[in-house]
Amino acid sequence: MKKALLKFTLCVLPLLSFGVFANEGLNLDLAILKINKEVKTLNNEILSLKDEIEILRENQRVNSEKINELLQMIELNRTNSDQTVKSTSASQNNKPAKLFSDGKNSFVLGNYEKSIKLFLAYLETSPSALSAIDTRLWLGRAYFFNGSFLESKKSYIEYQSIGQNHAKFADSLYELSKVYIELNEINEAKLLLSKLIDDYSNHSLSNKATELLQSL
Fold first, then answer.
1. How many structural domains is the chain composed of?
2. How far apart are CA 151 and CA 111, in angstroms?
3. What is the pLDDT of residue 151?
4. What is residue 58's predicted lDDT score, i.e. its pLDDT?
5. Are 89 and 147 found together in one domain?
6. How confident is the model over 95-110, as a mean pLDDT?
7. Could you tell me if 112 and 142 are in contact, meaning their C-beta atoms sit under 8 angstroms apart?
8. Which domain holds residue 180?
9. Do 197 and 206 touch, CB atoms closer than 8 A?
């Protein structure tokens, strides 16, 4: 009986032990599966976060480029605005000079009426003192060749009243004397010719002045 009981015990104990270890192994496998599942879930979340980070970085890059483009546009507009102001200012500053230049060009081309209009327009721009002197001299010439002798006389006299030290003052003496001759004011013409000969004996027009004076 004891032997039989012993045999039974020896047979049952291994089976019981196997059952316990089997249960422990099953629980361990479940735990591992659960951990793997959680790890997989975490990996998916990490990948999702990485994607979001990449999207944020790309958005930041795009926004940065847009900001740079906007700043460049603002700078370009400001530069263009400054250039426009400068261009307009330069154009305004050059306009009077162009009137005077165009007036002389018209005179050279024989368009005396146009040159007179341009010189008068130039004087209305309030030029510098020296430019005003030059313009009155050219006006005297333009009026003369246009046959407007009274206006020519007036312009030459205005020129001489303010341009005694001007480089062309001696020329104006000879030129105005010819205006006086056209107006039949011979005595005034003789006085100017004599002044040119006496005061500017080395001038290129001195000989012509002498010849003209002798012819009167």
1. 2
2. 17
3. 97
4. 52
5. no
6. 90
7. yes
8. 128-215
9. yes
